[in-house]
């Protein structure tokens, strides 16, 4: 950058432009997204940046965004496109009257960029360990070498109780599958090298996965955890491709069908067993 140390402050974050990187410091305010507060700061080397965009925002704002090279950041690799604009840690929202200044810095950044293809290694640091969070069915912890799942009797399935608490050395893993808890049925699944070709079980039945629920496994806790594990796995060997999420039916449609089933049950037109079986079938379609 032409002027080392320049700072551009926006809503929830400030970007400091240095000669070889952009240092992003996040605010710790009540309205600041919890993911930003959890990350504290991110240093993005210029070699990790593929492009820069400046677009109109909502209600008199503009948004300056750094587009990272594929494979450059473990956080975005773990997120796999599931973060919304408001939760994008590389998107700086500014008042519209700062548009000219933002355009200046965007141009300065673009002039420094040299590579846009996939990165051979993670260029942005992973969140620091140790890390832990509570999922719906267990507690996940990671010390940098081993991932551990300790099941909760109130939420874990019988399959997980039968398997017992789990420990996964990083050397035995090939990747991480993270499904946002803001989507239906979020989970964190560890992909193992010895079962790369096996069909994964439902997350609530898989001892290599923890599932999320209301208040359990929120993005700001589970995503940095997933990113840290992914970075450690990448150091130990090649990563496996993350399975595509199976298509799900419209939750609104399923909810309506369950409501109708409940009306039939209340009217005495279906038995207790029929109601339980059919409801389970409908939930399985989500």
Structure description:
With 286 residues, the chain is α+β, with helices and mostly antiparallel strands. It folds into 3 domains: 6-112, PH-domain like; 131-236, PH-domain like; 251-284. It has helices spanning 34-39, 74-79, 99-112, 158-163, 219-236, 251-266, 272-284; strands at residues 6-9, 13-17, 21-26, 41-45, 49-56, 61-68, 91-95, 131-134, 138-142, 146-151, 166-169, 173-179, 187-192, 209-211. It is globular and about 70 Å long. Strand 9 and strand 10 form a beta hairpin. Helix 6 (251-266) runs antiparallel to helix 7 (272-284). It has a 4-stranded antiparallel beta sheet with strand order 1-2-3-4. The chain has a 4-stranded antiparallel beta sheet with strand order 8-9-10-11. Strands 5-6-7 form a 3-stranded antiparallel beta sheet, covered by helices on one side. The chain contains 7 helices and 14 strands. InterPro entries: DUF4429, SHOCT. Residues 15-109, 140-229 form the DUF4429 domain.
Question: Could you give the topology of this structure?
Answer:
Layout: E1 6-9, E2 13-17, E3 21-26, H1 34-39, E4 41-45, E5 49-56, E6 61-68, H2 74-79, E7 91-95, H3 99-112, E8 131-134, E9 138-142, E10 146-151, H4 158-163, E11 166-169, E12 173-179, E13 187-192, E14 209-211, H5 219-236, H6 251-266, H7 272-284
Antiparallel strand pairs: 1-2, 2-3, 3-4, 5-6, 6-7, 8-9, 9-10, 10-11, 12-13, 13-14
Helix pairs in contact: 6-7
């Amino acid at each position: 950058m032409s002027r080392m140390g320049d700072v551009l402050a926006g809503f929830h974050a400030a970007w400091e432009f240095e000669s070889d990187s952009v240092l992003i410091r996040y605010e710790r305010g009540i309205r600041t997204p919890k993911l930003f507060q959890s990350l504290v700061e991110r240093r993005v080397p210029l070699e990790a940046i593929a492009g820069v965009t400046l677009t109109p925002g909502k209600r008199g704002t503009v948004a300056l965004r750094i587009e990272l090279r594929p494979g450059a950041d473990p956080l975005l690799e773990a997120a796999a496109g599931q973060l919304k604009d408001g939760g994008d840690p590389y998107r700086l929202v500014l008042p519209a009257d700062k548009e000219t200044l933002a355009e200046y810095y965007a141009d300065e950044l673009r002039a420094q960029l040299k590579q846009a293809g996939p990165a051979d290694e993670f260029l942005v640091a992973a969140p620091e360990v140790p890390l832990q969070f509570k999922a719906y069915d267990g507690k996940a912890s990671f010390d940098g070498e081993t991932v551990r799942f300790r099941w909760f009797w109130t939420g874990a399935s019988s399959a997980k109780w039968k398997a017992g608490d789990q420990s996964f050395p990083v050397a035995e893993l090939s990747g991480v599958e993270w499904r946002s808890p803001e989507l239906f049925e979020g989970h964190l699944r560890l992909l193992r090298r010895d079962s790369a070709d096996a069909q994964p079980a439902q997350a609530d039945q898989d001892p290599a996965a923890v599932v999320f629920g209301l208040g359990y496994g929120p993005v700001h806790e589970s995503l940095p955890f997933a990113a840290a594990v992914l970075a450690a796995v990448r150091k130990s060997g090649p990563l496996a491709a993350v399975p595509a999420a199976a298509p799900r039916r419209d939750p609104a449609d399923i909810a309506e069908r369950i409501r109708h089933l409940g009306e039939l049950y209340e009217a005495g037109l279906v038995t207790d067993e029929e109601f339980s079986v059919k409801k389970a079938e409908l939930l399985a379609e989500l």
